[in-house]
Amino acid sequence: MKSHGEYCPIAKAVEVLGERWSILVVRELLIGVSQFNDLARGLPGMSRTMLSKRLRELTAADLVEKLDGKYFLTPAGQELRSFVFGLGGWGSKWLLGEPDPDELEPLSLFWHAHARLDTAELPTRQVVIAFELDNRPERFWVVVEPVGCSICDHDPGFEVDVTVSSDLSALYGVWYEQQSMRSAIKTGQIRFAGESALVRRMPGVLQLTDIAELGVDASSRRPAWLA
Asked: What is the pTM of this model?
């Protein structure tokens, strides 16, 4: 990390967090991701070599620690929560306009969204939700179980309970609060098929938990959504 040669707390913080990808690595750790491969999945545009480098730098800065092959934020790293998600709130208000088509990356979207699904009203059994994207070949399956949710980009081999068909940009809009779920359903951008009792619950399930609420139980050493 390059020094600004200035004895200033802002300059010191920028030296640690100003490198490309550093804040996004911290974002992933804040929401409870700890495995290297899972960090890589959440940052698909980042090479694994660069991820390794940034983790080493953040560890050297005492923001990250490695335990049993996993990565966790130290107390100093955890104190970045309000800063990182506050930055996200500012970006949503002032910078998040219409997305460039090249920015609509479905794997990253589903990876970040699946753990935020509100499954409280679903049965306490396995529920499989399939997502089909309009005019795109990708398909995703979310397997909801009492212990949490898992995401698959290939058929997990379970019977599908509900199929969600959607325009990818509509999912981005709803999940980044640029469009209401009611509007997306009314205009047909998001559609459901399956058991009627489950279909009725889908709009609530897809109303995502605030990302800042994930991973808050750092002492458990596991993502909060698996607790």
From this structure: 0.81
